[in-house]
Design brief:
The protein is mostly helical. The protein folds into 2 domains: 99 residues, no CATH class; 43 residues. It has a two-stranded antiparallel ribbon with strand order 1-2. Strand 1 and strand 2 form a beta hairpin. Helix 1 crosses helix 4. The radius of gyration is 23 Å and the shape is extended. The N and C termini lie far apart (60 Å).
Amino acid sequence: MLYLSLFLNFLKIGFFTIGGGYAMIPLIGDTAVPKGWITEDMLYNFIAIAESTPGPFAVNVATFIGYDVGGILGVFCTVGGLFVPSFSIMLAIYYLSKKVINNIYVQDAFRMIRPAVTALILAAFVSVMYATVAVTDAATGETSFNWFGLVWAAVCFTIMLKVKKVHPILLIIISAGVGILVYGVIGL
């Protein structure tokens, strides 16, 4: 009965939450804490751990709750409950799209969506670039321009364009080392 309850409650969370993993947190908390599956402090700890582990945030939280409540079978119930709604919806969209993809109204809708998606990607790029080059001093609250960060981003971008065999993970590791050296050791 516990496993069915885990599955059905996380199925409900998966079906009625729009907006991703962070939007699920209130529903997960309102479901798991009153049922006594976890405490509020455990939920906060699970959120913190889920933030630092790879994978989808909500799936990680569901995994931790499922394991804490019901072991491995509990994990399958909670994660399965979250997975079934999104999988079902995506499957339905796939089959429906095959039937209506040649419809002129659907094609027009996709044409209108492309600029919005481009704008969202550009906005993400700008916000990450701003966080790289605009550095705020925690003590004074003063913002300064990070010339080295901008130059290093340009160097990495150029390397990725010119040297096709360089793996991005290698650039990330090298960048971490350069960051430790420049900002930690040298103190730029």
